[in-house]
Amino acid sequence: MRARSLVLAVGVGLGACAAPPLPEPAHTEPANRPASPTSSAAATDRLVAPAPEPALSAEAVAPPATPPAARDDRKRIVSVGYVTWIRKRPQVKEGDFLGYVRVGSTLPLRSEEIVRGAGCPGGFYQVEPRGYVCRDITVTEAPRKPWIEAAEMTRGGSGAFPYRYALSNGAPMYNRVPTKSEQERFEKFLGKPSEHPKLPKTLRSHEELAVVETIPAKDALPSFLLGKSSAREAPFDLVEQTIPLGSMLSFTRAFEAEGRTWLLSADHTIVPADRVRPFRPSQFRGADLKKGEAALPLAFMRVKARPRYVREGDAMKPAGGEWAVRSYVQLTGATETAGGRKYLETREKDERGAPLFLAEEDATVITTETKLPHGVKEGQKWFLVRITSGTLVAYEGLEPVYATLVSPGVGGVPVEGRDPVKDSTTPLGTYTITFKDKAATMSPEKGKDRSFWIADVPHTQYFNPPFALHAAYWHERFGELVSAGCVNLSPIDAERLFDWSDPQVPAEWQGATGAGAKENGQASVVVVRR
């Protein structure tokens, strides 16, 4: 897999969590033909939350095909480099950008006039809704037809799962459909297909949602792969790279060729489906307070299911049944003591109409903040993350709008004077969102020959690089300490909060800058406490 625009590291024991500064592309005159499309620039309307729904198959949440951009009279440019920068002004200056678009994305022009500026010999396009794009090799006005087809077929969809995801057991990424003899030759040292070695202990959480499930070949062979053709322009090798054991793949299509099912990756390579395990999509989500699903105070059930109690005389007796793990229940705020234990009264009742209680030690309680943190303005959107309870609440001023469970760094509360990256802890403090990315590949390394990566992690929001809020599609131990320092959210929660927070990412952009870019508007704040 090619080096991605954002190099991140996640997972227990990997050290880092999120992104260093994005690399700047070379700025040269525009080419007549686009560059290789993969060339690189270097987490109810009920008082209690429902129990987790029956597990869906990985196939059940295939992202819908994204329709081509709506046609209009405006002229468009197409990104053909992995990163095409949108600049604040017509000049190339390190760090001076509003956002970027991903390969295959199109941008409408505000004007067809080329604007001259510093650092870009070809001049600049002025794009909608704002900003400038250097007229260099990362963009074109007339991409090749096969390339357009490849870009359309590998573009992510909308929703919590923009791609389909799978875990590699050592899968080659081919640049074209290999013959059977080529498959035998290149895979003879990779072990038998459909064998799935156990991951090392440090990566064990990464296979919690991986299932041994056949991925059906429901799609047609893409025409750009006919006759030993490739989505890439003159690829150097048949095999681009082998996805290391435990690394992850994002893909959009599954088709049959040469007697085998293949997956079309977001990187425009093809991967044998029998060498990966698809992920079962987590259906966990928190409480949307703004939509009236619940109101604070409420209690989440972390780690395991928790028993229900009912008062009988001076004692609390089991009421039968449990609140499921990761479900929540609303509280009245009243408490009672029995047998030396404290119990919280819930808004749930038994069949007789008697209130149900939750033991205090079983509850992870979220209450409403009554004072704005220092650095948060009246009416500003902000997140409150609590490490020890594994919770996140989103606020507009002092109005709570969303509450959920998250997975902070496995190292727990950071120790003053120690490196949170090395300790896998989420740093305490108040931060402004610096960058939002719709999907970012995460790795502890840079460059092509990496030993580990997680492909296209959705809805990533950086608040203290290399730390970020982002979806985790490989586990659902939300409410527990799991990550390498980032704040893991369920994909459903991550999408909801990404769309809610500021700055807003324009529909056709891949990512947008937060702090330091007044053109994108006010950025939201992330407050991390013990």
Structural summary, described in words:
By secondary structure, this protein is mostly beta strands. Among the domains are: 164-278, no CATH class; 297-366, SH3 type barrels; 381-529, L,D-transpeptidase catalytic domain-like (Beta Barrel). It has helices at residues 145-154, 180-187, 420-423, 491-500, and strands at residues 76-79, 83-87, 97-102, 106-115, 124-127, 132-134, 139-140, 164-168, 171-174, 239-243, 248-257, 260-265, 270-272, 276-278, 287-288, 298-300, 306-312, 315-323, 328-338, 341-349, 355-359, 364-366, 381-386, 391-396, 399-405, 429-432, 435-442, 454-464, 467-471, 487-489, 511-513, 525-529. A seven-stranded mixed sheet has the order 2-3-31-27-28-29-30, covered by helices on one side. A six-stranded mixed sheet has the order 15-25-24-23-32-26, with no helix packed on it. Strands 6-5-4-1-7 form a five-stranded antiparallel sheet, with no helix packed on it. The two termini are 38 Å apart.
